[in-house]
Amino acid sequence: MAITTEFPISLRDPTLLDCRGLINGEWREAVNQKTFPVYEPATGSVLHSCADFGREEFVEAINAAYVGYRSFYKDTTAKDRAQLLRRWHDLIIENMEDLAIILSLENGKTLAEAKGEVTYAATFVAWFAEEAVRNYGDVIPSSYANSTVLTYKEPVGVCGIITPWNFPAAMITRKIAPAFAAGCSVVIKPPSETPFSAIALAKLALKGGIPSSLIHVIPTKDRKASLELANNPLVRKISFTGSTSVGKMLTKLASETMKKVSMELGGNAPFVVFEDADLDQAVDAALICKFRASGQTCVCANRLYVHRQVLEPFAEKLTAKVRTLKLGRGIDDGTTQGPLVNAAAVEKVKVHVADALAKGGQLWTGGKPPSHLSGFFFEPTIITGATADMAVATEETFGPLAAIFPFESEEDVITQANASEYGLAGYFFSQNVSRIFRVARQLECGMIGVNTGLISAAESPFGGIKESGVGREGSRYGLSEYQNIKSVTIGNLSWGVGKGRL
């Protein structure tokens, strides 16, 4: 298939769309002129080509980033870094329309969702601009006489950033804003499915005054080349969002040089509706939590557990709302559900639906790709009668399939909800205050939503337990992921008066 060079819609600032990589302030093609195609999921056709870099460019970027971070941290104050981040934030907001169009076309999500993501991405930049000046150390009482202990927080250094395609704007800012706030530099490997959002954000970062030696963007389809981020000893931290299998592999490689790691990996989120829940509230939350971004979010509800007493009315209400959703190209008016990212994603949903129906599940709506659309679409689907032996019980569908499992008791559903190697997010709905505190303590998840399907925000720590990863992003805890703590013990202090010394 021929690779197009014409973007299918005009932008207010056409320079934001760029197919090149960024190394030390220079926008360039790959040395060997290689490119790879980026597809528009809504049509299945090639949207644009992108430069395809190799290992040599990663090494060059890492070397430049190492020099950059050493001078940046030495020559700037926390106030300076905060001001740079605020300017970057303002530019993201000023260019929201263009950023949303780029994101919608390369990712497929609706324009409304894309605008929401750009706004969400900007909140991380604003948050860490404020956290930069709150980078406090401690004075610790020493157990030794005439001594005191001070602690300093210092940047880890060069950070390798590997981001996913499902949130191509927000996952960039959630990782690199705290890196800049701490004084680090970054080398970004954007997802090959959605590289243009990262490139556009980098352009705005440079325009806002972020030093060019701090931010490098290396698009590639060469997995071996990108492993330089894990292998190179100058890289002192890896931040990755993606599959558990890849996260484990990167962690093993990073251990060879004892890099700091943040791994935000797979999920299999339970969504529990107790018999005393506000059903309308639970249905609205399920609609957002399950079908936002066509079910392609890592905190998306994957297993819906509904008490038998309320299962029928819950399913009826949810089905009625799901049937109002409109599939289509994300940038088209009226579209509420965009496509999946590629053909493999569609196939996975088909397999999960077929498996569930073969094992006794009942189809309420959806169940197949729509015949009237040519891209990577799948109808929003609801299946009841789900059981633990179905694939959807143990695998993350990452698509618009709501599988509803019945349960009988609180103890029963907690056992089912925790019967997963993943522990990223969980949700439950109840009007009983005692139950809310009791269940929240027992669910094995890093993040829990109670009577809400929205749990992600700049001020809230994001991350999981078990095989869903390590580390936290966002919040005041997110800054520490990019810092080392140094203790300084000062001994033999004299507290005498008039001796001319302290």
Automatic annotation (TrEMBL):
UniProt keyword list: Oxidoreductase
GO biological process, one term: gamma-aminobutyric acid catabolic process
Recorded superkingdom: Eukaryota
Domain Aldehyde dehydrogenase: 27-488
Keyword Oxidoreductase: yes
Active site positions, chain numbering: 264
Listed pathway(s): Amino-acid degradation; 4-aminobutanoate degradation
TM segment ranges: none
EC number: 1.2.1.16, 1.2.1.24
Matching InterPro entries: Ald_DH/histidinol_DH, Ald_DH_C, Ald_DH_CS_CYS, Ald_DH_CS_GLU, Ald_DH_N, Aldehyde_DH_dom, Aldehyde_DH_Superfamily
Gene Ontology cellular component list: cytoplasm
Matching Gene3D superfamilies: Aldehyde Dehydrogenase, Chain A, domain 1 (3.40.605.10), Aldehyde Dehydrogenase, Chain A, domain 2 (3.40.309.10)
GO molecular function: succinate-semialdehyde dehydrogenase (NAD+) activity
Pfam family, one: Aldedh
Record CDD domains: ALDH_F5_SSADH_GabD
Reaction equations catalysed: succinate semialdehyde + NAD(+) + H2O = succinate + NADH + 2 H(+); succinate semialdehyde + NADP(+) + H2O = succinate + NADPH + 2 H(+)
Family to which the UniProt record says this protein belongs: Belongs to the aldehyde dehydrogenase family.
Protein name per Swiss-Prot or TrEMBL: Succinate-semialdehyde dehydrogenase, mitochondrial
